[in-house]
Amino acid sequence: MTVSKQVSLTCSGHTRPVVCVAHSGLTSEGYFMISGCKAGHPMLRKGETGDWIGTFHGHKGAVWGATLSKDSFRAASASADYTAKVWDTVTGDLIRTLEHKHIVKSVDFSYDCKKLLTGSNEKLLKVFDLKVNDDDYFSLEGHTASIKSSLWLNEFMIISGSEDKTIRIWDTRNRAEFKQVLVTSPITSLEFSRNYDLLLATYGSTIAIYNATSLKLVKNIEWPVPLNSASLHKDKSCIVAGGEDFKLYKIDYETGKEIDSYKGHFGPVHCVHFSPDSDLYASGSEDGTVRLWQTVPGKAYGLWKGSENKSNTIPSIATNN
User: Fold this and answer.
1) How many CB atoms lie under 10 A from the CB of residue 240?
2) Is the pTM for the entire model greater than 0.85?
3) Would the pLDDT of 313 be above 50?
4) Within a 10 A sphere around the Cβ of 136, how many other Cβ atoms?
5) CB 105 within 8 A of CB 145
6) Distance separating alpha carbons of residues 93 and 214, to the nearest angstrom
7) CB burial class (10 A; 0-12, 13-18, 19+) of residue 100?
8) Is residue 63 exposed (0-12), middle (13-18) or buried (19+ Cβ within 10 Å)?
C-alpha cells in the first residue's frame, strides 16, 4: 500500500532519541502527555496540541519510561541512573526518588495512585507504597532478563513483559506469579485496551492480542517489519504501530490489514500511544522528536483546522528546554 499524507505536528525540545510517550486520562483541563528520551529530562505537554508545559529536571541518565496518573496530578519516570522518580505536575517539584540497583525501564501508577510499580534490569518487579515516606516496597521475582514493560491490571494483579520472551501475570496478594506465556522474541511493548479486557503486546514483527486476565491468545497480526510499539483505539476499531522502517501504520483490528501508513520521522519509531479520546496518537522516534497524528486526517481538532490539513506542509511546535 502506498504511503498516505497527513499533517503531523512535530513537538521538538528533546535532544536525543525519544523512547517513551504516555497520556493522562481526560480531565476538566483536557488531557496531558509526557515523553522521555535518552538525554533524561521528561517533558510534560498539552495532549491535544503538544504545547510544552514544563520539563522535569533531576535524572542523571536516559529516561526509559514515563507515565502520568489518570488525573494528571502526578508523573513518574524510570531512568538509567538506577532510580524511579515521582513528580508533582502542577509545581514541577520532585516528590520521591526510589532507588534501584540497576537501570529502571518501566513505571506505572496504581489506579488510586497510592502505589508505583517499576520494572528494571534487576529482572525484578517492585511495588512501592507511596503513602509512606520511606522506600517501602516488595519485589516480584521470576523474570530471567530485563523487564521492558509492567502494568497494573487491577487493584491486585500486575502484568509484565520481558526480554526473556515471556509475558507474566502476578498476584500481589500472595506475591507470586499467576500465569505466563512464552513468545518467540523479546517483548517490546505492552498496553491494555480501554476497558482492560484485552492486552496488546509487540515482539519481533508480531502484534499479539490476549485476554488480559487469562492470557489466552485472541489473535496475532504478523507484520513485514519489526515493530517496537503498538496502541489500540478506544473502540477497538484499529491499531497504530511503529517500528524500524520509520513509518506509522494504521491497522484494521478485525482484519489485521493495513488501512494507511504515514512517514514523517527520520529514524525508527520507538513508541506510539493513542490519546484518551483516540482522536490522535503520539509517536516518539530515534530522531529526537515527538509527533502527533490524527486518527481521521482532515478533522478539526487541536491545532488542526479541518480540511486545511490537506496541505503538504508539516508544522512544528517550538518548545523550551
Assistant:
1) 27
2) yes
3) no
4) 11
5) no
6) 39
7) buried
8) buried
Interior angle at CA 34, CA 30 and CA 35, nearest 5: 150
Q: In which residue are the cell numbers 537501570 written?
A: 103
CA distance 33 to 46: 6
Query: Minimal CA–CA distance to 203: which of 178, 222, 218, 217?
Result: 222
CA dihedral over 176, 182, 186, 190, signed as positive or negative: negative
**Helices marked H in 149-262:** none
Q: Give 74-131 pLDDT, tens digit per residue.
A: 999 999 999 999 999 999 999 999 999 999 999 999 999 999 999 999 999 999 999 9
* 6 vs 13: CA distance, rounded Å: 22
CB 118, CB 99: distance < 8 Å: no
**Secondary structure (DSSP) of 157-177:** EEEEEETTSEEEEEETTTTEE
Mean pLDDT of 217-232: 98
Q: What are phi and psi of 104, to 5 degrees?
A: -95, 130
Cell 517500528 locates to 243
Task: From 288, 259, 290, 272, select the one nearest 229 (Cα to Cα).
Answer: 272
Mean pLDDT, rounded, for 66-73: 96
What does the alpha-carbon distance between residue 54 and residue 130 come to, in Å, rounded to a whole number?
23
CB atoms within 10 A of CB 31: 17
